[in-house]
Amino acid sequence: MNIPESALHSLILQTHLISEPELLALEEFAKKTQITLSEVLTQKNIVTDEHLGKIYAEYANVPFVNLSSLTIPEDVYRVVPDKYAKFHKLIPFSRGVDGIKVAMENPTDKGTIAALEKKTGQKIVVHYATEKDLRNALQLHKRDLQEVYMDLMKQYKTEGEAPVTAIVDLLLHTAVDETASDIHIEPLEADSLVRFRIDGMLHDILHFSKSMHSQIISRIKVMANLRTDEHSSPQDGKMRIIHDDQPVDIRISIIPMVEGEKVVMRLLVSHYRLFSFADLGMNESAVAKITSAMHRAYGMILSTGPTGSGKTTSIYAMLQLLNVREKNITTIEDPVEYRMKGVNQIQVNTKTNLTFANGLRSILRQDPNIVFVGEIRDAETAGIAINAALTGHLVVSTLHTNDAATTLPRLMDMNVEPFLVASSVSLIVAQRLVRKICDYCRVSTVIIENELKKSLPESIINKHFVPVGDNREIHVYKGQGCKNCHNSGYAGRIGIFEILEISKEIRKLITERKDADVIAQQAIQEGMISMLDDGLLKVSKGITSIEEILRVTRVESL
Q1: Which DSSP state fits 485?
Q2: DSSP one-letter string for 160-179
Q3: Which of 394, 499, 540, 541 has the lowest CB atom count within 10 Å?
């Protein structure tokens, strides 16, 4: 539900949780980072999501409901079809003599309320629930994919026709709903298995009979314009589906296995969701450093990390802030993962010799202010990008390195002179993605300090945690596992970052060809927070677990 910022301003002041000067400062911060005031208030723990929901309910003059504290009867929930409930962000949660109680994200939507009353033949008693609460409740009550598949197969037996098209559509649309990045369809000895990669991890989703496997593979080949009569050679293709009125591009890879053909489908949501730096997990200090580097007229900003660490998403968070009519922004990417209005985006095409290096040369003749190079892969691209940063352009790019400091020697390994690196690079953002503890099954747990010392130095432990009691217990959080998180204990991901600003002293170390360890030590002395430290700060706040931080920072696991 949209609420005017002026109204929210007044309602927040009435809570006496924050003074007006502090609120004005937060409104200014929200404007700079292009996020809503409500997001700032919850991120800074000034109000909880539930408290903010009560404020919104008061504004809309409807009762507030916290769905996470209720047990919703299945027959009540099924009054509204899943697709309709998801699209309109609503859930029926109780039924009585006075009508059906429905939680809505927008309780002022009279058209939807009238349609529900007509469909059910009962009075609709509207309540307000937060978007987050509704999303989690919808996830908890969604039907198991295996169950939906079995219903389709029963229908097939009745109608005498295999529902192959329906099964493939079900897999694709469910994967998008589950925010999966990949779908794996694997032939096994006895049956076939579908797995979704969610938050970087593969989850078993569906088993189906081996007799259906070849039909499903053939359907995917038809959709991707691949040869249906080829079963012994690998094939690559692509297709597009429309999900909730938004296009989703899908890359297809098919390879022959001993038991049959295996398909992996990579999902690329073409419509870019605007992420703020705070959404990504950056603290205020990191945002300030990036904002300062972004608003320079020239120089280079590098985002580093392994494949799948969220580099491109971070770059797009920067570009959305820089995307104004007065500036010409041009990108060259492989592939173009997100579409941004007002940005000139070029797709690498090796068949026409449109490489990163050749494309970058052409871009520099297009009078750009800001250039995004999808990846610096070779010495030629590195040299052109460095020179562009030195000649009045702001260049943003990505590089595969383990941390921020090792980026500098990596550029020099590409035959870029140290003085050019020192003069052109302004900022390096190194990052990883960690899974967030599921909100629905998060519980407090205890780790004994001596156990943690096997994986972390004592100085690091004492910096972030306060062991208590005779056993020196450290209180943290974990997810027990539930339907919402596929019993993994985690739902969603957030970034951990280290931001290296190229200071005068670090420039001197670069020109002297000092190694990465010396540069990192100097950066930490100047205030850089390492990825490990940033991750452990998120552990202490209950956002993620110690096991996750140790996993992605390659520290020996517990």
Answers
A1: G
A2: TS--HHHHHHHHHHHHHHTT
A3: 541
Strands 442-448 and 473-479: antiparallel
Question: 360-403: per-residue pLDDT in tens?
Answer: 999 999 999 999 999 999 999 999 999 999 999 999 999 999 99
pTM: 0.80
**Distances in Å between the alpha carbon of 413 and those of 300, 395, 406?**
18, 20, 11
**pLDDT digits over 187-225, tens only?**
999 999 999 999 989 999 999 999 899 999 999 999 999
* Joined tokens for residue 441: 């099954």
Q: Which residues pair with 256 in a beta bridge?
A: 261
Task: Give the closest residue to 65 by CA, choosing from 127, 20, 21.
Answer: 127
Evaluated on CA atoms 121, 125, 127, 133, the torsion sign reads: negative
8 Å CB contact between 476 and 539: yes
Helix (H, G, I), strand (E, B) or coil at 300: strand
| 8-state DSSP, 70 | -
Instruction: Please confirm whether the linkage preceding 335 is cis (ω < 30° from 0).
Output: yes
Question: Nearest-CA neighbor of 434 among 338, 546, 528?
Answer: 546
Half-sphere exposure of 92 (CA within 13 A, CB side): 25
